[in-house]
Design a protein that fits this description.
6 helices; about 65% helix; mainly alpha
């Protein structure tokens, strides 16, 4: 019985993490942007697509706004998500900003290189780089898996969705 009382006392004395309001602000801005863009977007063709292109940004934006309110109510109450028992991380360890910085750098490199090199090459390098930064030391396998994923997603977008991704230097080959 004392375990239950200790747990209740710990929750009562826990200080809320007010830095989470930054997450609320970002979610609110993103949700408002999606709702605004969805409402101002021209409608689709009702005979071809009864749902239209406006539905999804509006639904996702409203969902973000609802989750923003839920999080904003939970923060001052000191409610926190329970750590997953299967996680092998220590939540008390400091953040690994080097890894975060390298991943952001790889993402920026993808944005810069996707037009000149094309999606297949830039995507393969991006996947291999991310896998390596996150700890994989199988460099050749990373590149092969990245190349397969990039080419499959290239054709999935081009053939399946009708959205052409940049072919870059492989134009005429892909």
């Amino acid at each position: 019985m004392s375990t239950h009382i200790d747990a209740v006392d710990d929750n009562a004395t826990a200080r809320p993490d007010y830095a989470q309001y930054i997450v609320c602000a970002v979610m609110a801005v993103a949700g408002a942007f999606l709702v605004y863009e969805g409402v101002s977007m021209p409608g689709g063709y009702a005979e071809v697509d009864p749902v239209g292109p406006r539905l999804f940004p509006i639904v996702i934006g409203v969902g973000l706004l609802v989750m923003t309110v839920v999080l904003a109510i939970a923060i001052p109450r000191g409610l926190k998500g329970e750590a997953d028992a299967g996680e092998d991380i220590d939540p008390d360890m400091p953040s690994d900003w080097r890894t975060v910085g390298l991943l952001i750098g790889l993402f920026v490199a993808l944005i810069v290189l996707v037009n000149p090199l094309g999606w297949a090459i830039a995507g393969a390098l991006f996947f291999a780089g991310c896998a390596t930064v996150l700890g994989s030391r199988h460099y050749v396998r990373n590149i092969v898996i990245g190349a397969v994923l990039a080419v499959v997603s290239f054709y999935a977008f081009y053939s399946g969705l009708g959205i052409p991704l940049p072919a870059g230097i492989l134009d005429g080959i892909l």
